[in-house]
Amino acid sequence: MSKNFRNYLFVLLTLATSDAIATTVVFLPGNWEGQAPQSLEGTGEKPYELAKLGQFYATRIYSVQIKEQLSPNSDPEIKDFLIPQVSREKFKQTCSRLKPDYVVRDQLSIEEKIRIDRSVYDCNLSKMEEYSIIGRKDLFEILEKLTKDSFPLVPKKKVKEYSREPVRAAKSQIIVLDSSYSYAPERKEFMSQLEAISWQPETKFRLVVFSENGSKVFPESTRSELIKQWKDFKSEGKSNTQDLTNALLRLRRILSSEDSPGKKKERMISILTNAKASNSIAGYGAAIEGLSLIGAKVSILYSSYAGPEARREHKEAAKRGAEFREVSYFQKIVTPRDSKTLVFKEGKLYSTGASPDSKMKIEDSALEKVEFSGKYSLGEFLNPWSLGSIYEEVKKEKILTSEPVRSNFAFLFSNSVSEASNSEYFGNFPKVLVKSGSKAFWIRVPNALGFSEGKKGVWAVTFLSSSFSSEGVEVIPDSLERYTFSTAKILECDPSVARNYLRNTEKFKFDCLVKGEILEVSQP
């Protein structure tokens, strides 16, 4: 390496790290062949979309300034790049006209796999570098990886890595699921939550099903495989606590046989059931204790269908090493006298003029107990999904209209699996309500400065899976940046878009663009 070149390289690195002089980059329209989102097909926007994607990842990863030249109106010569291959001379001419440090152009091919060929022309060194990457069908992941290697002389931003420590115990989320006919509504809610919540990438899953006809412990699998396992399994018979005990004993034998020295696995077991009593408190409790002794964290999410004896068995068994949670049910009704909310909680029926909050809670002081009579006097023959019918029969009062029964199952389940969530990233931050298209949603922000009602803008954000959010995802406040460049359509997002991406790819995070108007600012 010559002395002059070493001196030049030193100056280049010094300038690149200076706050006063930032590296400037021009992304030229690229060449996009193969599949594309419907919103881009037939519009002529694919070359520009590719450049906007490049700009996004460059600004997320590096301390660079973008010189945008993405419109024929602002740069008539831009049409010269709307061809598959562009000569080196065209890159040099762009350097002369626009005076950037780098000129970049991508060629994208999407067939069975994705391939991106990137040309990066260093205007200072008059040197062209070529980069290529091939990957599976996740364009965002591939572009991010490619961008991390594309500018070796440009300093990367000091960005917090939103992932767990590299050395940590493997996680196993085990779902012990009641397969009796009567538990069908709760199973449906469970499946929707399983699909909605995005989980930590190191988490594996295992399904255990039980009823009076026996039990089955499935092999450890991915979430998508677990979903398929359950969809292939049919409801059957009834269930009681002895059936559940047998399933837990079987599970412990299998888990013990899989353990090996030096390979500790962090296991979370969620028992979802409405199993009736069977006078097996000792055996049920011993099974819970046995799972705790091999290091499993056990929780019971119980739905009361069968009176006080069943509840007592579940609560007593939980004392041997499990966290006990009980589902509550709510239904709004209108009678000839008034409107009210029926609440079925801990085996008792209440009425109230209040409505449940966002976490499906109502203060106990607002509840008025409805005394059972007739066949319900012992707290049996109860189906919480038929609250209106029970109320009519007990109170002899006709219900004119009613809303569907709701429960706090989803909230309790998300908390029971919080060991596999990422709550440490979501602190006590201000929130803003953003209206994007037809949707409105809350996101956390580092501070409320710069956010006011009516303000419109675009923000680059990182969504992370969160079992504490009803959406299953949340924006990490520290990730949020105002985005001032042209937005790639396929990067515009809201919580549902982020959730679907994380669910379909089983990724840990999603970087994208939130575009909208601030409707409200809320301090913590």
UniProtKB/TrEMBL annotation:
Protein name: VWA domain-containing protein
InterPro entries: LIC10012-like, vWFA_dom_sf
Matches recorded under CDD domains: vWFA
Signal peptide: 1-22
Gene3D superfamilies tied to this protein: von Willebrand factor, type A domain
Keywords: Signal
Claim: RNA-binding is one of the keywords in the record: no
Signal listed as a keyword: yes
